[in-house]
Design brief:
The complex is a heterodimer of chains A (about 800) and B (about 375). Chain A is α+β, with helices and mostly antiparallel strands and about 800 residues long. Chain A is built from 20 helices and 41 strands. In chain A, α1 packs across α5 (about 170-180) and α12 crosses α13 (about 450-465). The model of chain A has no long low-confidence stretch (mean pLDDT about 90). Chain B folds into two domains: about 1-90; about 110-365, BirA Bifunctional Protein, domain 2. Chain B has 13 helices and ten strands. In chain B, strands 1, 4, 5, 6, 7, 8, 9 and 10 form an eight-stranded mixed β-sheet that branches. In chain B, strands 2-3 form a two-stranded antiparallel sheet. In chain B, a hairpin with a 2-residue loop joins β6 and β7. Chain B starts with a helix and ends in an 18-residue tail after the last helix. Classes of the chains: A alpha+beta (about 800), B alpha+beta (about 375).
Chain lengths: ~800, ~375
């Protein structure tokens, strides 16, 4: 909320400087978001007297003025304004001044060959209005040489952010009250005007909705004259960011900005019969002041006459019954609308107004009568007219909250020592009534106070939060204890292992488009109110985000992308931590040593996948490579890694070319995905014993290797053969690996040759020839069961 | 004997003149081979009388030793020369590029989360997590923001379709509303979940993704926050101030961190406190100018910057979380992780965090070997 310093001083008697006031506002929780000082804005602009005006020798529309600036010799100024003439007074911007409307710095310059020292300004140039037909004309008595800001009496404007718990500070008066409590001056009493009321209110007012509108006060004023507001009023409203509309409307806004009290003025001539606050009927409509039509329902409070709805209670009035320049008789409305109900209605209608903001946070229930009198006083003073007596329908909430306060809580919760006397003084100045036994009665406007902790906040913020000293948290003896959970440890290791393997960690959006989600099997969680269609569905897979990143990278001219993300995917049964990596484009660029660029292949993904699984602590040796990696992958170049058929830990392979096409990628992409929550937790004991590893001594005898080449059916998985070879003699065979796979000359159709190197580790004594032969026979026999035949 | 001496001289000259291992081998065979003149000379010893032999043997042996030594020496010389020549022929241009070893990187957000975990572990805080798809009750109601609470308007919340409204006529509207699913707007629901699970006392941080329907130069609809929560029997605002000061000093690795606490409002804390930190503008106005945390915000050339919200946990929140609010009290705070990462490491565009551009990630990311530790200092200097 914005207000000028002058306005604040209407309510606060203070000698404090602007800086002291803004510091205090920040200190008491009314955050200053900005200060505009027109005298800074208008620095370099001064009241000047045009002594002579001659035609410009080389331009028809320009004049050359001699201008008295109040000091030194007159300066020469070239001016194009039609109203510039000798003898007038206006506003001169000197070189160095910055024109507020466009930010241009004025300079001494030659205009069509004639030197000009500064510029005579229009209202628009100084951001003072729309007028740009000529330069500003000041009255005769304006004192030459004076700073224009001083002459104009402009006052700094303070912009304060009011938190939702402080509706009482949504008017300048409330802010003044807080500042006074903080010792920044004295709160001036509100001067409630007195006037002669003439007769009863000619219109009947009632409320039928005690919940939504417990109180409706009103009065008629006859014989008013509407029109534009006086300048001072317009200026004040503008300083508060409120556009002047017409005197009557401006006065309601003025009351709201000064006292946080919304009100409404109806054109009496447009009302039919009595006025009621009631629940709207389903299907009722209102063409509101903002030129939009709203459909109301029976949960909403409406103000209505006997023929139609006049306004949405606490939110906005109707266009039809609003005041115009022709209005002569008005009905004033000052009501109390229920905060919760106003909020719900406002949200339903999607309608945010200054009135709603105040009502939904809670206006002062004790300020209805006073507010009505203040508004009446302003109207009769500035627009004339004769007020009727007041009608009070219903009554606003009146039950004050009483809090049993223990002043020791200030120290226990706030960590600061404040004497009982000071605590009492602070609360009293804020309008709380403090009994001798510390039963504290809260003012009704402070509906934010729920209990003693709120009173501590009041005391501490006024006393000064800066007086709270740092106090160390108690520490445990010894070094810090480990805190990470097994999952956190796994995530950390995986991240660093992936980065160590050359991948860049990315973080991509948790939400993707519906189309992208559909490509990876569809998402379960679709937002009701997405910020854009691209960010609508919670990702069921991390792949789309990474593919999109890769695609953008290729579009930017990169030729190789290695990305991973460790994050959640969002499925029907919840959020699952996953790691997905994409290896896209060149694995190695073309080079002097290796020739052509090489792409990533499925084995790169497999190697990376196993490296990461090992880092994550998965039992890599026990994993089975199985098919069925799903539709996202190339059907012949992808697989899953499982612990048993049901527990899938990971998938890897080449991404399906169709999917790549849909993401606009035209190079092969290898990828892998790991389900972190499928990796079995390691059993961990406690204490030193659990760190010990199984005992091990490297064998003393030298291992030997033997090669076997088998002819096997072409569709036999190499892993099958290896498994059976390894399993044939679990004591002596410690490793078996494929070192060659061959089809072609010498290998019959429908078969392939797989060559395996088997490592044999003697235990107690070295192998003899007959031992080796026996083992070899076992190996061959085991392989034969799979249809493998030893090559001659 | 003179013959032998002559032969020796000739052989030594031939050995010395040998230019290859093969030529040298010929010389060896000619002298020391089975039929070599030295071997033949040695054989003559057998026919000699003991006296003759006594005289001749040492002389022949000496010749043999001299020739063999010369051959060995020449052989070593020739081999060394050959190796030298071979090595010279193997010279390669080492200015040619070696194969690239791709360098990976850790995202700044992950790095900073690890830094947070490390620093707070030293203060006895564990790391808690919670769901991002949260229900209305945990995100709002239990944090003292019931349905009509105006503070809800400050959270631009992403909602999921109201499943309760579709069917389930039995559940009342209020219950349905509390179960309505949304994307958590802050990490504070983790407070509730942790306290419900673990009870009091508790010290934790909860870093993670949060979501608000907001997008401009400084806001993204997804960002990262870290929640801090301490609940114990006698925790007050002074502890909160110390904790944040201590954290920022450790995080930014500077002692001149000055915090300013300002009264504010959050429904889940009472009293509520906004935390500002003093900073200066280095190279202000120029390109590359950036904010540098440190110093008193009121000092010349300095100002205050908002870092996060905090306060003493509202009694009602403790009650919602099943904590005995007469016995326990505590503080909570929330900080933007992306924001403090930007302040520390100098990124200026939040949106780039989530673009997955390898160039950005290589520049602003971290080596996997820079795992933050207290002994090495948690920060990484370029």
């Amino acid at each position: 909320m914005k207000f000028s310093l002058t306005w604040l001083k209407d309510h606060l008697q203070t000698e404090a400087s602007l800086q002291e006031i803004t510091d205090a506002l920040n200190a008491i929780g009314l955050e200053v978001e900005g200060v505009e000082d027109p005298s800074e804005l208008l620095a370099g602009f001064r009241v000047a007297h045009v002594l002579t005006a001659e035609k410009h020798p080389d331009a028809d529309k320009l004049q050359v003025l001699s201008v008295d600036t109040g000091e030194g010799d007159p300066v020469q100024v070239v001016c194009g304004a039609p109203n510039a003439r000798a003898g007038m007074k206006g506003v001169l911007g000197l070189p160095g001044a910055v024109v507020p409307s466009n930010g241009m710095e004025l300079r001494k310059a030659a205009i069509r060959g004639v030197e000009s020292t500064g510029m005579m300004c229009s209202a628009r140039e100084l951001d003072l209005g729309e007028d740009h037909d000529g330069i500003i004309e000041l009255p005769e008595d304006a004192s030459v040489g004076h700073s224009f800001a001083d002459y104009q009496g402009s006052s700094p404007i303070i912009d304060v952010a009011i938190t939702p718990n402080r509706p009482d500070c949504m008017g300048v008066y409330g802010i003044a009250r807080d500042l006074a409590a903080a010792g920044l001056g004295t709160l001036k009493p509100i001067a409630v005007p007195t006037f002669e009321a003439s007769g009863a209110c000619p219109i009947q007012i009632s409320t039928d909705d005690a919940e939504g509108c417990p109180a409706f006060y009103g009065r008629v004023i006859k014989g008013v004259k509407n029109g534009p507001s006086p300048d001072w009023m317009q200026q004040r409203l503008k300083s508060a960011g409120q556009k002047p509309i017409s005197l009557l409307v401006d006065l309601t806004n003025y009351l709201m900005l000064a006292f946080g009290r919304p009100s409404h003025v109806y054109d009496l001539a447009k009302l039919q019969g009595s006025i009621t606050a009631r629940r709207a009927k389903a299907g009722e409509e209102l063409a509101a002041l903002n030129e939009k039509t709203y459909n109301l329902d029976e949960t909403m409070t409406a103000i209505a006459d006997e023929a139609k709805v006049l306004g949405i209670g606490g939110i906005m009035g109707g266009a039809e019954t609003g005041v115009s320049d022709e209005t002569t008789d008005v009905l004033l409305e000052i009501a109390y609308f229920d905060p919760a109900a106003t909020g719900i209605t406002g949200r339903k209608l999607g309608l945010a107004t200054d009135a709603r903001t105040r009502f939904e946070r809670g206006v002062d229930p004790e300020f209805l009568g006073q507010g009505l009198d203040l508004l009446t006083g302003l109207i009769t003073e500035l627009a004339g007219g004769t007020p009727s007596e007041v009608v009070q329908a219903g009554s606003p909430p009146s039950e004050a909250k009483v809090v049993a306060f223990d002043t020791g809580l200030t120290k226990r919760l706030g960590g600061v020592d404040v004497s009982d006397e000071e605590q009492r003084a602070i609360l009293t100045k804020l309008g709380f009534e403090v009994a001798s036994d510390w039963q504290v009665t809260c003012p009704l406007r402070r509906n934010d106070i729920e209990g003693p902790a709120d009173l501590v906040e009041e005391v501490v913020r006024i006393h000064g939060l800066d007086k709270v000293e740092s106090v160390p948290l108690p520490r445990l003896d010894g070094v810090a204890r480990p805190t990470a959970t097994p999952m956190q440890k796994m995530e950390r290791k995986l991240r660093r292992a992936a980065a160590g393997a050359g991948l860049n960690e990315a973080i991509t959006w948790s939400f993707i488009s519906e189309e992208e989600a559909a490509l990876v099997g569809g998402g379960e969680w679709s937002l009701d109110n997405p910020i854009s269609e691209d960010m609508k569905v919670m990702r069921p897979s991390l792949l789309p985000g990474l593919l999109s990143s890769a695609q953008r990278s290729f579009d930017r001219g990169l030729s190789s992308v290695r990305l991973f993300e460790l994050g959640r995917r969002y499925l029907k049964d919840g959020e699952h931590p996953s790691l997905v990596a994409v290896l896209a484009g060149d694995k190695t660029p073309r080079g002097w040593a290796n020739g052509k660029a090489q792409s990533f292949d499925a084995y790169d993904a497999k190697a990376m996948c196993l490296t990461l699984l090992e880092a994550a602590g998965a039992p890599v040796g026990k994993l089975q490579v199985m098919g069925d990696a799903g539709d996202l992958y190339h059907p012949g170049q992808s697989a899953t890694l499982r612990l048993g058929p049901k527990n899938q830990l990971a998938s890897f392979g080449m991404i399906h070319p169709t999917l790549l096409k849909q993401f606009g990628i035209d190079v092969p992409v290898a990828a892998l995905g790991i389900h972190l929550d499928a990796i079995p937790a390691k059993k961990t004991g406690k204490g030193a014993v659990s760190f010990a590893r199984p005992s091990f001594t490297p064998p003393a005898l030298q291992a030997v290797t033997r090669d076997f080449a088998f002819l096997v059916p072409a569709d036999l998985a190499a892993e099958e053969l290896l498994k059976s070879v390894r399993g044939s003699d679990k004591v002596n065979i410690t490793a078996a690996r494929v070192f060659d796979v061959f089809t072609g000359e010498g290998v019959p159709e429908g078969q392939k040759s797989i060559a395996i190197e088997v490592t044999l580790q003697p235990q107690e004594k070295s192998f003899k020839d007959k031992d080796l032969k026996a083992i070899a026979d076992t190996v061959v026999a085991a392989a034969a069961k799979l249809g493998a035949e030893l090559r001659g | 004997m003179t013959d032998l001496i002559d032969q020796k001289q000739a052989a030594l000259a031939a050995i010395d003149a040998s230019t290859s291992i093969d030529a040298l081998e010929e010389q060896r065979v000619a002298a020391l081979g089975k039929k070599g003149w030295v071997s033949l000379a040695l054989k003559t010893l057998g026919q000699m009388s003991p006296e003759e032999r006594k005289e001749a043997a040492p002389a022949i042996q000496a010749v043999r030793g001299e020739v063999a030594g010369a051959i060995d020496a020449k052989k070593a010389e020739l081999e060394a020369a050959a190796l030298e020549a071979q090595l010279a022929s193997e010279t390669i241009d080492l200015t040619l590029p070696a194969p690239d070893q791709p360098k990976g990187s850790i995202h700044p957000v992950s790095q900073v989360m690890d830094e947070l975990a490390e620093i707070f572990a030293d203060l006895g805080f564990s790391v808690a997590t919670g769901p991002e798809i949260e229900d209305d009750w945990h995100n709002f109601t239990a944090l003292n923001m019931d349905e009509s609470h105006p503070a809800r308007a400050m959270h631009d919340t992403f909602y999921f379709p109201d499943k309760a409204a579709d069917g389930a006529a039995s559940s009342s509207e209020a219950v349905g509303q509390q179960k309505r699913m949304l994307l958590r707007t802050h990490t504070s629901p983790v407070q509730i979940r942790s306290m419900k699970d673990e009870g009091a006392p508790v010290r934790l941080i909860a870093p993670g993704r949060v979501y608000r329907s907001d997008s401009d130069a400084t806001h993204t609809p997804m960002f990262h926050q870290v929640e801090g929560l301490v609940v114990d029997e006698d925790i007050h605002l002074g502890h909160l101030k110390w904790t944040l000061e201590t954290f920022f000093k450790a995080f930014f690795e500077r002692e001149d961190i000055v915090l300013r606490l300002r009264p504010s409002y959050f429904p889940f804390t009472e009293p509520s406190v906004e935390v500002d930190v003093g900073y200066s503008n280095e190279g202000a106005g120029k390109e590359g100018g950036r904010r540098v945390v440190g110093g008193h915000g009121d000092a010349p050339g300095h100002d205050w910057m908002e870092l996060g919200g905090s306060g003493m946990v509202n009694r009602r929140v403790l009650e919602f979380a099943g904590i005995d609010a007469d016995k326990y009290q505590g503080f909570a705070f929330g900080l933007g992780i992306d924001r403090i990462a930007m302040l520390k490491y100098g990124m200026n565009d939040l949106r780039a965090f989530f673009d997955g551009d390898p160039r950005w990630l290589n520049h602003y990311g971290f080596s996997p070997y820079d795992q933050p530790t207290l002994s090495a200092g948690v920060g990484v200097r370029p």
